[in-house]
Amino acid sequence: MREKVLLLSGMAMLMLSVSCQSPAPVKYAEVTGNQDVRYTAEEWAAMRDKTLADYHIIIDDDGCDMTEFPKDLELTRENIYKQMLDAVKGTEVDTVSFCPFSVGHRLATRSLVTDVHVERAALDRDRNVTPELLALGTDTMQVAVEFCRQNKVKVLANFRVNDVHDAWYKHWMYGIKVAHPEQLIGTEENKPLFGSWTAFNFALPEVRQRAFAICKELLSHYDVDGLEMDFYRFPVFFKSVAWGGSASAEEVEAMTQLMRDVRAEADRIGKIRGRYLVVATRVPDSAPVAKDAGLDIDTWMREKLIDIFIAGGDGGYYNTYEGAVALGRRHGIKVFPSIDTSWMGGGRNSIPGYTAQAAAALNAGADGLFYFNMFYAKPYIKLMHRNLDDLRLMDKQYYGYYQRSGSFTAISAKTPELDELGNRRGDRLYLREGQLAATMQMEIGDDFSRPEVLAKNPQLKLRVETKLNEDYKDYQLKAAINGTPLPKPAFEKGVFVFDVAPAVLKPGANYFEFEGMDPLKKIAPWMILKGDVILRGGNQPPWRRLWTAHDFANAEKIVDNSYRLIDSGTGETECENLLYPIVPFDHAVTCEFEMIGEGSTAPEAIAFRIANGEFVEVLCFGPDAISLKYHGGVFPFKTDDAFHAYRVETKGNNLKLFADGTLLADVTLPMAASNPACHLKGTHSTIPNMNDSSVAIGSFSGPGTGSSRWKNMTLSLPYVQIHDVSLSLTFPKQ
To answer: Fewest CB atoms within 10 A around its CB: which of 33, 110, 200, 305?
Structure first.
């Protein structure tokens, strides 16, 4: 049997006693001294350029290979590397950005400046091997560095600047945050508008000082090639922003000074070691959005505080690849768009989906590519290429957007007003009779004028996904690309499929137009919640969870083909509910559903909320009556004896409620959607217009508890929604 000491590889086999709070102190070989005189400014700049020329493909390793290690697997070097890192062998990946946990400023290392992660793993099937590694005198970061050195791959230490996974895995939140709750942007009882309450407030000097100490330790204590600071893995940094404002000039300057300090420390250590240490940052791809959050990326680039601008990611994209590249070029900074496994699921998380993003980014002029969470798509890693020419004959699946943009500042919540790209990316397309739906933009990485591409007979299909059933296969949907109309589409299970001639497409930005010609009066309601599948992964969008439910693991269940929502918590914002966003054309929304109440301790613990763009009402289901929160009316009806069919019709300020076909209420609504009194407060995430244009089900009572089951929920709206648009490129086998 292999001995665990095989992990040490040249390190002293020092066994350390590990307490449940932190390891025994370890003597590091601290990098000290100042040898700036060894390099002139010109020499150092030349070394920087030479170093950066070797960066092409960076892949993020989020550290789960060691903090989420299979519970019963023997701890050996080989078994650790099999989890993730071995996948880069023999590929074009040249750099691993390794994250040693860094949730809530805790590290899975022998840190002397912050808390050490020795708590249990997130999943019961796994174990956190950090205590075992510490007992062997090593840690996750050191083991990753050794792999990279042995396999001639560069390695960056990855620091997630304000990771808040401890809001979900509460057993991870201890140490600094427990001892100093005043350093956080909120409390569990008083949650901010944007971001998680467990995020640190970087307006405080002690928070910035700790972040700097972590960066310094990672750079100086490990043989790394540089540092990646991930600002986009939960991009809320200031209490002012979290509560709906914008970062002040003083806060922006404080964060910029932190970056100056990090840059200076990286240069100091690099000059002592005789090599340039890279500083990369993963940030929003839009300068206005980033600055509203407190990140002045324009200044960071202008002052050369960073070397690689990792643009965008799973928090959303607010710019095109072309726009992000132009931003970096303006300051002479390398641009690596972030390609992530998508929360949208579907074809985006496929080899053709990833290849399409890479091709589009490289065609736009990106200097390289950054891949996030891609160790969970291992088959694709061997197909990552740094040159566009190597991607030309690979199948692709393009989309107008690869992530839904999240809201983490007031300005990001209003992206369509900030940047017209929000209306062009294809996530807000609606067909109305005889009206142009919208023009959407899609960035294409292929050049179909190239003879070697045309020789392979490329096949192109445009897929427009709707919720229309087979009764609407003759619906007159028209489409055009770059002004050229497409032929009549085929219809396949709600998807209109157009053949596309290669000649109508061009490298870079392409524009798609859609028009619906038929009257919509006969369009059937579409199912938004059947009740037979948990809303997670690709099944979830566009449903959203806005609060963190008590006992989240058991808060949602499928029971007899119905969706059970259980609110078992009594905290101020411990609510279990689901929200579905809509576009309320004509302020007319009709929703039908079946529901049975299973008991509640407060009126809003079993409720249905409807907002039609102008007015809002909350229907509260008691055992013997249904009440309207804002109108005040109470309508006797038994709700807990069996499933009943409900229909809620709204048009402007009028609401009609039917139960099992009988009209219970026909009322005038008093609560305007613009009134803050009816807005959803204390949510851990937000989406645009969620307060005034949505339907939501479940519990809206923090202190109250309740359980209910829902099924067969449909929406009737005066438009057909285009739910997704994709363009597939395939090369027939020859």
So the answer is: 33
